[in-house]
Write a structure and sequence with these properties.
The complex is a heterodimer of chains A (313) and B (536).
Chain A lengths: L1 H30 L9 H11 L2 E3 L5 H18 L16 H22 L3 H32 L4 H9 L8 H17 L18 H4 L5 H26 L10 H28 L8 H21 L3
Helix pairs in contact in A: 1-9, 1-10, 2-9, 3-4, 3-9, 4-5, 5-7, 5-11, 7-9, 7-11
Chain B lengths: L1 H5 L3 H19 L6 H32 L4 H8 L4 H19 L8 H7 L2 H26 L5 H24 L3 H28 L3 H36 L10 H4 L1 H15 L5 H14 L7 H33 L6 H4 L6 H19 L2 H14 L7 H26 L4 E3 L18 H11 L1 H4 L1 E8 L9 E8 L3 H21 L6 H22 L1
Antiparallel strand pairs in B: 2-3
Helix pairs in contact in B: 2-3, 2-7, 3-4, 3-5, 3-6, 5-7, 6-9, 7-9, 7-10, 8-9, 8-14, 9-10, 9-13, 9-14, 10-12, 10-13, 10-16, 10-17, 12-14, 12-16, 13-14, 13-16, 17-18
Classes of the chains: A mainly alpha (313), B mainly alpha (536).
Chain lengths: 313, 536
């Protein structure tokens, strides 16, 4: 039973991911006084891409074709680590958040290689910039998670969630505020959203993620797009699970699960709206201001770790 | 090298240690001889002997208490030794073995010796010889001294953090493949020392189980590094065999020409970066876990410092990933940057088999680590008395195979999707065709990171465009950027000057007159006789 629910949780993250993207795009369009595309549009895009043919440069090796598959496999596996409707997960284990971060790194490593294999200048440019952003984002990511883990005295995400559920909602701790801000900044950087990267641009001065996937087409592109949607959704679900899990089902009754699912959707929608507002209201940072952005995130997460010892909350 | 690790007395250990240095120096010189090579080997020998002197001294400091260089008697004697002597022994062993291991700032010989050594020798030196230094240090710090005050752990942690960060940053800026790999050895020794330091801190705070965990992490990383670094150097050897260069700017597109070398090299890259399902991840995960466990101690300093090391190791890992995307991407993918790379031939069967074996070992440990963790756990129990098997080693061995099943299952399902494939040249923005000159080079790839960390590199840039009177339509542009941070200047120069001036003073004794030398001998004899007379 619990395995079935855990499986269902992972499916929510994987299958709901394009919807999250659709809602962000729709809400951004409304903020800009446009009508915008339907929120189901990303699904149609994926279906269209899966039907098309793969276009491969003749100079590329198998790494080019292999990269989207590894990216997809690694990123989808991340979904199996995050609790959604009740505090457990399919692949939960002690110290699993290190595994989660490094699975994301595995996907990114291969995507960067695929970009370099395309043989054009844009792929190298995207991969080079991605290398900068991701290498600096890893430290605040792990430090932020470590701070929350130390506070909860649990080394697994599910254990942290169980501990957080027992706390008073209104008794907000300093560690949580610091860790949340730094992890939110990392989420923005990791998933390539504004102000670090603009997901809608194709201008060589600014693109990071789009530069890497420029040579991909057809099913390969579909896998990449789906994987990056899953990554965004999994990170959102992770933030919700760590910092706002109240309402998750504590027993395995159908009613509890249903209520938890509805509540999760509401919380995710709130996060998505905030993200859309931020994206519409901010300009993209200059490339070399991104390290400062991540430096702030690192400092906040380091402070969070220090607070766990000195303030104990 | 085998003598060193099997020795049970200090004397045999030292003989093996010296032999190892001398033989490896000879091996480095195997491929030709020139003034520059001799200079580099001389530096190597110099530093090794300075290190060996420290090791010898630390062994001899045991003598007054143990009356023998037998390991067993040293072990029993060390408990009754005064704290000052123990501190001195620890520091001497730290410096002596640190020189061999190549921790910053004692790493100077590494990037000099490796590029000139033949690749199999590099593989042996980096894969095995550095490990004997780690072995020696573990022997001293854990077996003989049985841990020490907590500051000694912090010293080792600091050395590990500095070596790890600076090692990987210097590696990113390199485009000579073998020198880059040598800097990565510095980085990985840093990671190993991070584990050892954590273990010492735990020992000092009476947490034997956690100390065992950190020690297992360090030892496993030592073993892993031997595997993947040997594989990387063998790959570099195959490349240099096929193209006669190890300059990344001259390579490119090798994956299509050398598929087996490329695939095994890719596995090694993933392993050294510490990606899940490869062996490097297991040891880095254990190191991360032992940092996190620092919060369980009651000492405030340890509670803050150890968890913060999570960030340091994460930064090292992130930068290493950036570096190996560069290495593999620029050398093996895309288009060839030179004629040699265009006509490269696959390595012969024997070389491919050797690389395949190492790659298989990397994957085996990465996916089924339990088999290797069990013997390491029992070893750690010997070195850290009173420690059970840390629970963490079991949990990682349990979860990793499931993660592998999940990743491979999802990836396999995605790979089975029906693909129609069409070969079309990459669009060149309207130009007739892309050329390899339009690709990102190694230097270009690392530019953003070098820019962000320019305080570390202090680059000296020079841009010259010709002709000088037409700044907007230059015919040729030459660009040069050199890293100017130099340990030779800042750290070693004063030291070398001191030794040289001391040598000048000593030279006054050398008159060249045989009567004076006879006088010296006579005086020595008399003083020795007097010493014997009055001592008895």
């Amino acid at each position: 039973m619990i395995t079935a629910i855990n499986f269902f949780q992972a499916l929510i993250i994987i299958l709901g991911a394009p919807l999250v993207r659709g809602i962000i795009a729709q809400f951004k369009a409304r903020l800009q006084r446009r009508q915008g595309a339907s929120i189901w549009r990303p699904y149609a895009d994926l279906a269209k891409l899966f039907r098309k043919e793969d276009i491969v440069p003749p100079t590329a090796s198998w790494v080019f074709r292999f990269a989207p598959i590894v990216l997809f496999g690694a990123t989808v596996s991340v979904a199996a680590f995050v609790p959604v409707v009740q505090p457990s997960a399919l692949l939960a284990s002690r110290g699993d958040f290190f595994l989660l971060v490094y699975l994301l790194a595995l996907g990114r490593f291969f995507l960067s290689l695929g970009a370099l294999d395309g043989g054009s200048a844009f792929g190298g440019m995207g991969a080079s910039r991605e290398a900068l952003v991701s290498s600096l984002a890893e430290a605040p990511f792990l430090l932020g998670l470590a701070a929350v883990a130390i506070l909860a005295a649990h080394a697994d995400i599910a254990g942290i969630v169980v501990w957080t559920l027992r706390q008073n909602v209104f008794n907000i701790s300093g560690v949580h505020i610091l860790a949340f801000i730094s992890l939110a900044m990392v989420t923005v950087a990791e998933t390539g959203r504004m102000p670090v990267d603009n997901p809608t641009t194709h201008l060589e001065l600014t693109m990071i993620h789009e530069g890497m996937v420029l040579e991909y087409s057809g099913p390969s592109l579909a896998l990449i797009e789906w994987a990056s949607a899953v990554k965004l959704h999994a990170m959102l679900a992770l933030l919700i699970a760590l910092f706002d899990p109240w309402g998750m089902a504590s027993s395995l009754s159908g009613l509890g699960i249903g209520a938890a699912l509805l509540l999760y959707c509401a919380k995710a929608a709130l996060f998505v709206i905030v993200l859309a507002v931020i994206e519409s209201g901010m300009a993209k940072l200059r490339m070399y201001l991104v390290p400062d952005f991540l430096g702030v995130a690192s400092a906040l997460s380091a402070l969070a770790v220090i607070f766990t010892v000195l303030a104990k909350r | 090298m085998i003598v060193v690790v099997t020795a049970s007395t200090g004397f045999a250990f030292l003989v093996g240690w010296e032999l190892m240095t001398l033989v490896s120096a000879g091996l480095i010189l195997m491929e030709g001889d020139s003034t520059e090579r001799r200079h580099n080997v001389f530096i190597y020998l110099m530093m090794m002997h300075a290190g060996a002197a420290a090791v010898v001294a630390s062994f001899f400091l045991f003598l007054p208490y143990s009356h023998s260089l037998d390991f067993a008697s040293i072990r029993t004697a060390s408990a009754s030794m005064p704290a000052g002597i123990r501190t001195l022994i620890f520091l001497l062993a730290f410096v002596g073995f640190g020189t061999k291991a190549g921790i910053i700032p004692l790493h100077l010989w590494l990037p000099r010796a490796h590029p000139i050594a033949p690749s199999p020798v590099s593989a042996l030196m980096s894969g095995v010889m550095l490990k004997t230094a780690v072995y020696g240090f573990v022997r001293f710090a854990f077996d003989f001294l049985g841990g020490g005050p907590s500051w000694s752990g912090y010293v080792v942690l600091l050395a590990g953090a500095v070596s790890g960060l600076l090692g990987v940053l210097y590696a990113i800026a390199e485009h000579d493949l073998k020198r880059l790999l040598a800097y990565h050895s510095v980085e990985n020794i840093g990671i190993i020392y991070l584990g050892l330091g954590t273990s010492l801190v735990f020992l000092a705070h009476q947490a034997p189980v956690l100390a065992a965990l950190a020690l297992i992490a360090a030892l496993l990383h030592t073993f892993n590094h031997a595997l993947f670094k040997s594989l990387l150097f063998l790959g570099a050897g195959a490349i240099s065999n096929a193209t006669h260069t190890v300059d990344l700017e001259e390579l490119g597109g090798l994956q299509r020409r050398m598929p087996v070398t490329g695939a095994t090299f890719l596995i090694a890259c993933c392993s050294i970066v510490g990606l899940p399902l490869f062996n490097g991840f297991i040891s880095e995960w254990l190191t991360f876990r032992s940092f996190l466990a620092g919060s369980l101690l009651t000492n405030t300093k340890a509670q803050i410092v150890l968890p913060l090391m999570v960030g340091v190791l994460a930064l090292i890992g992130g930068l290493a990933a950036a570096c190996f995307v560069k290495v593999f991407g620029v050398a093996f993918l895309g288009r060839p940057h030179s004629k040699e790379a265009e006509h490269a031939e696959e390595a012969p069967l024997a070389m491919r088999a050797g690389m395949g074996l190492l790659a298989a070992a990397c994957l085996w440990i990465g996916i089924l680590p339990g088999f290797f963790l069990r013997p390491l756990a029992s070893l750690a129990q010997v070195l850290v008395p009173g420690a059970g098997v840390p629970e963490e080693t079991l949990s990682i061995a349990r979860i990793i195979p499931w993660v592998a099943v999940f990743v491979l299952g999802v990836g396999g399902a995605a790979a089975l999707l029906k693909h129609r494939r069409k070969m079309v040249r990459t669009w060149a923005c309207g130009l007739p065709e892309l050329s390899s000159r339009m690709q990102y080079t190694s230097t270009a790839f690392s530019k953003p990171i070098r820019f962000v960390f320019s305080t570390v590199y202090k680059p000296d840039r020079k841009v010259e465009s010709l002709p000088a009177d037409q700044p907007y339509f230059p015919a040729t542009i030459s660009y040069r950027s050199v890293r100017t941070t130099s340990y030779e200047k800042a750290l070693y120069r004063p030291f070398v000057d001191l030794i040289l001036s001391a040598a000048h003073q000593l030279r006054r004794m050398q008159t060249g007159n045989i009567q004076v030398y006879l006088l010296y001998i006579f005086l020595t004899l008399v003083s020795l006789l007097m010493f014997l007379r009055f001592q008895g």
